[in-house]
Amino acid sequence: MSSLPLPQITLRYEGPFDFDGMYAAIIDWAKNYGYLWLETGYKHKVPSAKGAELEFLWEMTKNVTEYISYKITFTVHTWDTTEVEIIVDGKKKTLTNSRIHLLIEGKVETDWQKRFSGNKFAQKLGGWYEKLMGKNIEGIYWDQLYYRIWNLHALLKKYFDLQSKKYQYKGYLKEN
What we know:
- This protein is α+β, with helices and mostly antiparallel strands and about 180 residues long.
- The protein has 2 helices and 6 strands, in the order ββαββββα.
- β4 (about 50-65) and β5 form a beta hairpin.
- α1 (about 20-30) packs across α2 (about 120-160).
- It is elongated and about 65 Å long.
């Protein structure tokens, strides 16, 4: 099994935001595109006078074909995390005030079922298949995941109100 990594994408924000809303937006995005979402790591460090420090590790996986799968890893780190109450339209709403750092990493994995692992003949056959599929893997699957991750990044920037109203790659994959 081999993997083709994508460039890391970083997002930083400081200020009040709805953490539960961000969490739900990421999960909705994953479900909308058919990804399996898992929380693989969680740390909550003892709060200081400024607030708590949290670390999350989230993974999204999707089996695209019998040979290709996508994996997106989210590393979320917050500092000085406190809960604040604000009044919106006469109702109290609890928001999270924090410095947040999101790191999004993706990779296209081949032979996720491990059909070409094992004896030397199977490995040789897998190498040939990898060479045969090489241009399709990079030109179709890697490219599709690359723009899909930028779509997720744009969603998060829009959520944090860090982006203009236009999306640079909108319509590139010819989807809604």
